[in-house]
């Protein structure tokens, strides 16, 4: 990544020429490690930092950004960086590197990209004791001040760069991610990669697996270990795809079972408003261990049980990072029956190369939003995944992505 500092043009050319091999270096896995140590490697600001201490002055801060023609903005508050938790302003590495992919995969000029980090303090005691931490040394403010800060940040960005400026929310906490998507989607050109981008890639994988198994989507059932923004986003888009294939909404929701960190979502439980449609009439299970991002949670017994009732089980291990993956492709290959496998990060395959499903794949969609080629609504995402589906989307993706641009 030192090349990015020395020669930006050469960096992007090298990245474009060998994107598949360099992707894990530019983004996951490496970006997670870089974010966790960001203050210890800090050289210069690569994005716009906005904090609660800037309130009433954010417009002048945005106007001081040197570029006058920004098309794409990626913003984070650092609350849920990959599987690492709240990293505060160290999370700026995510917007910076995500926008590298906008350039490499979608051809959006780097000068037209703006990384933004909203500093709303942190509750991480390690960061509060870190002498190199660049953010505010204060406990996180979850009051109305937080919402007001986001509001005050959005307006000057669109006032300066236009109402159609793409604003991508990245790695916000579960509640805030859905809250801001619902709040701003009719007012700004906004989408959330964790909710909608991951869903598009996951659904593309489902449709590829559908062709491999020969079983129509309308007959499938899905179980989700985790009921956060990514899982809910995937489930919502799968339901939409099922409805497009002729399944009623009630039946589509019934075919999706979701487990949060306590148990199966049932109608006697307590949940977020976004989870209500997936609550089923069922006796609550006993409390389960916290399996969100739980390494090797899919044990051999679980996999064998699934293989015993499914001719070709389809399992997506989507937790970040690889060290937190629920299982590995190697474990799947050792089963007697063939398993269709995807992982959110590229793993080290020798003989067999695992399929990869990661929301770093769809920058072409970002470009279509920038140039208004598609609607920003979920229906657009439902259409988009079809351009990304088989043959080949489980293994070879670069040409398909570049073909969208």
TrEMBL record:
Residues where a divalent metal cation binds: 170-171, 194
SMART domains documented for this protein: malic, Malic_M
All copies of domain Malic enzyme N-terminal, residue ranges: 4-185
Cellular-component GO terms for this entry: mitochondrion
Active site positions: 27, 98
Cofactor binding remark: Divalent metal cations. Prefers magnesium or manganese.
Domain Malic enzyme NAD-binding: 195-376
Protein name in UniProt: Malic enzyme
Organism annotation: Cyanoderma ruficeps
């Amino acid at each position: 990544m030192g090349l990015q500092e020395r020669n930006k043009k050469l960096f992007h050319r090298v990245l474009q020429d060998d994107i598949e091999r360099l992707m894990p270096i530019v983004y996951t896995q490496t970006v997670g490690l870089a974010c966790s140590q960001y203050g210890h490697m800090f050289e210069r600001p690569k994005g716009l930092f906005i904090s609660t201490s800037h309130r009433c002055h954010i417009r002048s801060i945005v106007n001081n950004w040197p570029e006058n023609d920004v098309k794409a903005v990626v913003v984070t508050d650092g609350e849920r960086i990959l599987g690492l938790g709240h990293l505060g302003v160290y999370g700026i590495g995510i917007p910076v590197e995500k926008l590298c992919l906008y350039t490499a995969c979608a051809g959006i000029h780097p000068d037209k990209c703006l990384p933004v980090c909203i500093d709303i303090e942190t509750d991480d005691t390690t960061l509060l004791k870190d002498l190199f931490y660049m953010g505010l040394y204060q406990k996180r403010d979850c009051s109305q001040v937080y919402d007001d800060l986001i509001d005050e940040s959005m307006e000057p960005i669109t006032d300066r760069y236009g109402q159609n400026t793409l604003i991508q929310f990245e790695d916000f906490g579960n509640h805030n991610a859905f809250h801001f998507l619902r709040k701003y989607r009719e007012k700004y050109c906004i989408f959330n990669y964790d909710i909608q981008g991951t869903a598009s890639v996951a659904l593309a994988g489902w449709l590829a697996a559908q062709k491999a198994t020969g079983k129509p989507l309308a007959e499938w059932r899905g179980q989700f270990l985790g009921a956060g923004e990514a899982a809910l986003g995937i489930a919502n888009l799968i339901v939409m795809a099922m409805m497009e294939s002729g399944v009623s909404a009630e039946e589509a929701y019934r075919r999706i079972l979701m487990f949060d960190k306590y148990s199966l979502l049932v109608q006697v439980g307590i949940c977020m408003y976004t989870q209500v449609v997936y609550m089923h009439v069922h006796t609550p299970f006993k409390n389960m261990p916290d399996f969100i991002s739980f390494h090797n949670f899919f044990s051999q017994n679980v996999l064998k049980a699934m293989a015993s009732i499914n001719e070709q089980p389809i399992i997506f291990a989507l937790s970040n990072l690889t060290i937190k993956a629920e299982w590995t492709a190697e474990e799947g290959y050792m089963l007697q029956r063939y398993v269709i496998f995807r992982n959110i990060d590229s793993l080290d395959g020798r003989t067999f190369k695992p399929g990869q499903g990661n929301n770093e794949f769809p920058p072409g969609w970002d470009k279509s939003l920038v140039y208004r080629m598609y609607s920003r609504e979920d229906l657009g995402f439902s259409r988009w995944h079809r351009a990304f589906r088989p043959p080949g989307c489980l293994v070879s993706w670069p040409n398909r992505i570049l073909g969208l641009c």
